[in-house]
Each structure stands twice: as C-alpha cells, then as structure tokens.
Amino acid sequence: ATWYSVDGAPAQAGTSVSISAAGGHTLNYWSVDGAGNVEAPQSMSLNIGPVDLSASAKMTVQGAVLNRTTGKYVGSVSITNTSGVPLSGPLRLRLNGLTGGVTLDNASGTSASGPYVTLAAPLAAGASVTAPLTFSNPNRVLISYTPGLYQGNL
Q1: Is the confidence at residue 47, as pLDDT, over 80?
Q2: Which region among 60-64, 113-117, 120-124 has the lowest average model confidence (pLDDT)?
Q3: C-alpha angle 78/84/87, rounded to 5°?
Q4: How does residue 113 score in pLDDT terms, banded at 50, 70 and 90?
Q5: Average pLDDT, the chain
Q6: Around Cβ 96, how many Cβ atoms within 10 Å?
Q7: Which of 54, 63, 89, 131 is the most exposed place for a label (fewest CB within 10 A)?
Q8: Are the C-beta atoms of 139 and 99 separated by less than 8 Å?
Q9: Quick one: pLDDT band at residue 15, thresholds 50, 70, 90?
C-alpha cells in the first residue's frame, strides 16, 4: 500500500491526493509492501495558487513622472529580499488597486486584482531588483497602487 501525509496531517492510504487550499504545502509519501517492508519516506514541496511574499521583501516605489517625448508615465518599484533565503519563482510584482483609467503598458499579464510584471528569479537573500514601469494615463490622474510580490501564477 502507498501512504501519504499532507502538511503533517495523519497518514492516509492511497495513490492520489487532492489539495485545494492556496499556499505552500509539503507532501510526504511512502509505500509498504506485503512483507511489511517500509520504503524510506519521500517528500515534495508544492504551491497551490500564488503565495504572497510581500512580507519577505522591502518594496520602494519611485513615483511615476511624465516623459514629455512619449507621453507615457514612467516609474519603478525596487524590491529587496529581506527574508534571509532565496525567493524562487516565478515571481510577480502585482500593482494592486491601480488607479482606474491607467494602464500598465509593460505588464506581463493581468489578474483579477491588477496587472503584474514577471521578475527574474530566484532572488537571492539580500539581493535587490528594480522593475521599471510604464503607464498610459490619458486622463492625467494621480497614479496610485499598492505593490505586492507573489510567487506562482496569478
């Protein structure tokens, strides 16, 4: 029989497992043959949905300024890994609550909570990366957002 345990829960017999809770998880699994020989436990880490890494990083926003030549607004977010361990990817910088009518021109994609930019990963402990941002702002309103750092697909 094959046995498994998710996040330290009691072991269950089976050859498939369903995990739906968002976040990081640890799956341990092993087999026992008919003679009672127990395989050395195997382990794997997995992520369901995006993991919010914002508490693991210091993020500094450089306000967007108008480039009079292009008519675009340019700014950036500098991200420093303060967690003490490398942050593996994919890493996404999401602009939560971006002002209505403003578009992030260099977005890698958009989630329900806002556009995002994909960052190079991993980000070593203590390392920094700066994400340049380019905005279309036809109504010339104040550009506002809250940066969030996420691991996984948004």
Answers
A1: no
A2: 120-124
A3: 60
A4: confident
A5: 93
A6: 15
A7: 63
A8: no
A9: very high
CA 5 to CA 44: how far, in whole Å? 11
At residue 55, what are phi and psi to the nearest 5 degrees? -75, -10
Is-contact 144 97, C-beta < 8 A? yes
d(CA 118, CA 135): 16
Residues 6+ apart with CB under 8 A from 104: 95, 98, 115, 117, 133, 134, 135
**DSSP three-state, residue 57:** strand
Is the pLDDT at 109 greater than 90? The verdict is: yes
Band (119; pLDDT cuts 50, 70, 90)? very high
The end-to-end CA distance of the chain, in Å, is 37
Cα separation values, 96 from 12, 51, 69, 82, 113, Å: 40, 15, 28, 21, 6
Q: Which residues contact 147 (CB under 8 A, 6 or more apart)?
A: 54, 59, 61, 77, 79, 93, 94, 95, 96
Which pLDDT belongs to residue 30? 97
Gap between the Cα atoms of 34 and 81, Å rounded: 49
